[in-house]
Design brief:
heterodimer, A: alpha/beta, 8-stranded mixed β-sheet, 5-stranded antiparallel β-sheet, 24 strands, 42% helix, B: mainly alpha, 3-stranded antiparallel β-sheet, two-stranded antiparallel sheet, 5 strands, 67% helix
Chain lengths: 594, 204
Amino acid sequence: MTAVADRIVVLDGATVPSREIVGNKGRSIAEMLSLGLPVPPALCLPIEECKRFHAAAGELDEEAWSSVLNGIAGIEAKLDRRFGDPERPLLVSVRSGAAVSMPGMMDTVLNLGITDEVEAGIARLSGDERFARSTHCRFVHEFGHTVLGADLDEPAADATPAEVREAVRRDTGEEVPSHPHDQLRAVIRTVFESWSSRRAKAYRRHWGISEDGGTAVIVQAMVFGNLGEDSGTGVLFSRNPLSGDREPYGEWLAGGQGEDVVSGTHDPAPLSALALEMPSVHQRLLEAARLLERENGDVQDVEFTVERGVLYLLQTRSAKRSPLAAVRTAVDLASEGAISPREALGRVSVEQLASVLAPRLADEVAAAAEVLARGTAACPGVAAGVAVGDSDAACDFEGDSVLVRPTTSPEDVSGMIAARAVVTEKGGSTSHAAVVTRALGRPSVVGVGEGVSAGLAGRELTVDGSAGVVYAGLLPTEEVDPAEVPGLEKLLGWAKEQCPVEIVDDDPDAVDLDADGVALDEGTPDPEELAARLRGAGAARGSVLATAEGARAVLGAGVPRVVRLPGQPAAALLLRLAQESAQVDGDTEEESEK
Amino acid sequence: MSDLDLLALHGLAVKKAGSPEAVAVVLGAEEAEVSAALDDAVAAGRAVGAKGTFMVSPPGREWLQEQYPTVFAEFRANPEASEAYERFERINRELLALFTDWQMMPSAGGERVPNDHSDSDYDHSVIDRLGAQHERAEKVLERFAALEPRLGVYSRRLDDAYEKVLAGDLDWVSGARIDSYHTVWFELHEDLLRMLGREREEAP
């Protein structure tokens, strides 16, 4: 039974309530539970309660609150722990969960239920006093920041909870509650209030989202990978996210907790370590990953924790993957029948395809070349040219130039646009040069060292913005053979079947959009003008055809052939056209289903 | 010397290069007056201009550096300005990291790849952080504007950029050719550094 106490929804997987009732996160927890997967127990104050809260002028009424306490009692019973009990402490997280995610909502407060006594209890249970103290500090800081609006730096590693509490008090004039119930009630109120935060309201106004909604509140038990034997935390990918290989791939940190794996402060072991330590947990985890992959039709990235031999899945989502893996997994999933070939086309972005096919420096070329400078790789890609020392020179230079500067400032932007690549002496991956070159798509290496630019002036250089190296000379780049990219030929075959337009190297009668003044420049091309130019054309060429708008215009006008320009990979043009064409087909199918 | 002679050249230095219109936006001043002041600056050899775009000349830079300690003496001596600047620096660090996250997202395997904006959850989370920093920035700009009302203009410009981002125009986070959040923030930083006589600390 789902609705225990009238005002809350117990998320137990018995039913899967809709997003409109429990929000996105609530639904996702319920879905996992309904598949029989182990998820820490949770309760939800549904979206309805947010409306009621606002109608009652920002008050959580007593009935709703006692429902929450009933729900907490249910979680306590399931886990045999108690909220605020130092001997068997239950800590919970609180999250917002609207039906549509939007900026401005309160995100997450972790570790509610911690007090001085509970901290001592956790120190005993984990044998890690430092962990217990920093958990307490983080809670006080997070509560101060999120609920009370304190603007403070992260607490120092050796800070005490009392110090953090005092800092919050000084900054806000308010107190972080030390009773678990007061903590919980205040955070729930903050979630509901965040629905009408300035940012959330502005977002809804811009996107025409009704004010007549709300957010759910998810209260979920926290589990710990560092409490006792047979515990730890890890991440599992249902397939290898680098190669796209079908083997599951992951990391396991015995005795680790929370962010330990992701943060890079610890050295996790491969998943095979878990298979040795706890074979049945490992088995269960792999089964869960397969199930989630099948249900969601995509490669999954699953965060999990094992607490005293019990597996808990904390979160699953579509896995981030390398461009190479994007191609391979899309083709594999379609070949296995998990998705259609048309869906597979949508799983690889044009940028990923371009990256897979981008010219690069051959290893032996790079190895034999003279390295002039090394720095931080700030914008990927390889480009070559003659080094120029300032923006004016870059703008005036005939041929390819590389802008080399001590640092860059707004006056250099015109030069950065004119140059093929950018090198700076000072600054890191967040410097002005790095930020701007990424916006412009210019390969760049930053922070090569003071005084280096003097030695580069006037020389021919090759900048490898993927590796962070500047080489002497104009080095040859290496083309990638599409046949060597696993899955690519199949994907492009599907793209050809889907795409009614042929990509050709030349056509004397092609409409030349660049020559007609419809070149790709700032701003979006005007669809009406594009349509007018392309009407009745037998073929077309132009920089603008690499964009989604360009592809839509070609399809809309029924142009049968697109001529690729130098630098425009045929595969990327084809994929873009196929994706846009699939989009149109998809819309028509939806129409006919109605 | 009128205030605007100094300020127009200062605004131009913040902008590095620009039209009287662009400098007027930075200063929150009348374009015609800025234009006249820039013409005077050209006549005095402190700026060079062509086709409506001006730049501070090397003598102009020196002149500004000579003027700053006197013109902004009060501002520099005020502990409130230094304290507000400390807060500004903290927001600055967060914002620079945020701009990097906006453009380069963590990928499988840990390295960062250019953000192709296909992951709207990821974009949302960054925009959400921008919103949080924007609220902090507003507070610190209130403090600066109390000392130097002219600086209040940045609050409005940042607000404009942020509103455009919220409306879904993603270029306004860090687009280099427009008055994006990053562009305006960078100019504000330059303005403050000059007023306070400090050097830019590049991110590590």
